[in-house]
Amino acid sequence: MGKALIIGAGGVASVVVHKCVQNSDVFEEICIASRTVSKCDALKEKLDGGKTKIHTAQVDADNTDEVIELIKAFGPDVVINVALPYQDLTIMDACLATGVHYVDTANYEPPETAKFEYKWQWAYKEKFEKAGLTALLGSGFDPGVTGVFTAHAQKHEFDEIHYIDIVDANAGDHGYHFATNFNPEINIREITANGRYWKEGEWIETAPLEKKEVYNLPEIGPKDIYLLYHEELESIAKNIKGLKQIRFWMTFSEKYLTHLKVLENVGMTSIEPIEFEGQMIQPIHFLKAVLPDPASLGPRTKGKTNIGCIIRGLKDGKEKTYYVYNICDHEECYNEVGSQAISYTTGVPAMIGAMLVMNGQWQKPGVWNVEEFDPDPFMDALNKWGLPWQESHNPELLDLNVDNKELSR
To answer: Main EC class of this protein (predicted)?
Structure first.
């Protein structure tokens, strides 16, 4: 059907490449591009020889002109951005300059400040409309599938949705004392930022990891979950009409949080530059360099993830609850594509989003979040491509009123 340029060569990009090659009827040709071309070449060597023709290229995704040159040389129908979120705008500019559709998995954030907002990318809406191009934002799992789950619930399960709790649980064990499951810099910036949730049209801010609950997850069991801010809260709160409250929760072990607190206390998680041996460095960059590469965790990680949405609202005038979720096994993911489940659950939806843009089902000029499209083809594709979803109409519920409730570790 067409050609895709995949920018990035980390754990998520590896899954995207594997899934594009599996889906060769849609992805006839792909080009894997990264600053480190040897990583791209390694993926090509591993997967070349099938129906999908694989190319590789070196590119500095911080440089718009380099991205433009590459797009012109390869001629893709869509760019799948699985590089760093700092590079979203650079790549979007390149897509506009070359007339190519755009897909990413995480919102732009400025390198110098931990900000998780869509405002910078939403500002491109008119440019993409005038160019007749589609920019699909956040086509990972969270953000991504969680938005599709919400749109599915709105279309098929509810007349009105009032409350949403997104729960992201990872019960995997990689055996290290401390490691992050995706890019350490992005992961730690996210966790150490203040929490926020949306209620009755306002954002309520909490201290980092201040709010904790215990939730009993299918196939994983009871886990400590902590309230965080996550970017899909912003888009879902905007796009789901009648919503009263939306929150995001993630699991962390006591061991993980203890290590993180020590690192934070000694300044290793800071993004403020310091002078070291005559050079200015961000401490978090040094920490990233000494931590295990998330892409190396696949063969070590055992256990499962469970990510889903607990939704409450009205159907036919009656109160209704609904829980839609996916369970993913780390070892099964590694056996299939050589990656752990965190990369898998992000990479598969990135391929699906790009597929739907390429085949026209999710093609509409402008800048869009996933929940603004028909969820049905995406939900069907999740079952086909390795992330089958499950549902419950009688789930365990979380306390709606945490504002004045003292929750602590």
So the answer is: oxidoreductase
Quote the CA–CA distance of 355 and 363 in Å, as a whole number: 10
- Crossing angle of helices 341-358 and 145-156, in 10° steps, is 60
Nearest to 158 by CA among 324, 45, 402: 324
DSSP 368: E
Per-residue 3-state assignment (H helix, E strand, C coil) for 217-240: ECCCEEEEEEEECCCHHHHHHHHC
3-state SS assignment for residue 90: helix
Cα gap 102→133, rounded to integer Å: 8
Q: What is the pTM of this model?
A: 0.91
**Nearest-CA neighbor of 228 among 253, 200, 252?**
252
How far, CA to CA in Å, does 272 sit from each of 189, 209, 249, 275, 287?
Answer: 12, 21, 27, 10, 13
Long-range contacts formed by 258-267: CB under 8 A, 24+ apart: 259/177, 259/178, 260/178, 260/188, 260/191, 260/192, 263/178, 263/188, 263/287, 264/192
Name the residue among 119, 118, 128, 61 with its Cα closest to residue 97: 128
